[in-house]
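Exercise: predict the structure of this protein bound to zinc ion.
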Amino acid sequence: MVRPVTCPICHKPVQASKTLPFCSERCRTIDFFRWNDGRYAIVEPLDPTRIQEELLKGSDSEEHELLKGSDSEEHAEE
Ligand SMILES: [Zn+2]
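Solution:
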């Protein structure tokens, strides 16, 4: 007899065994972040590739700010 397992995040019946006790990778990630840092409420699905993009974007924009800063300083002097 198989006991029905429900996802602790969305309470859907769980079928895939590789993500137990969660129904999906997404719910597992949500649960992980909930326990990892209770301050953040996860409302959007987490995509690791998107997080990487955000990190890359962050460092890139910082560089731009630095370039913009030195450029405007030169203009101010003239
Ligand atoms: Zn779920």
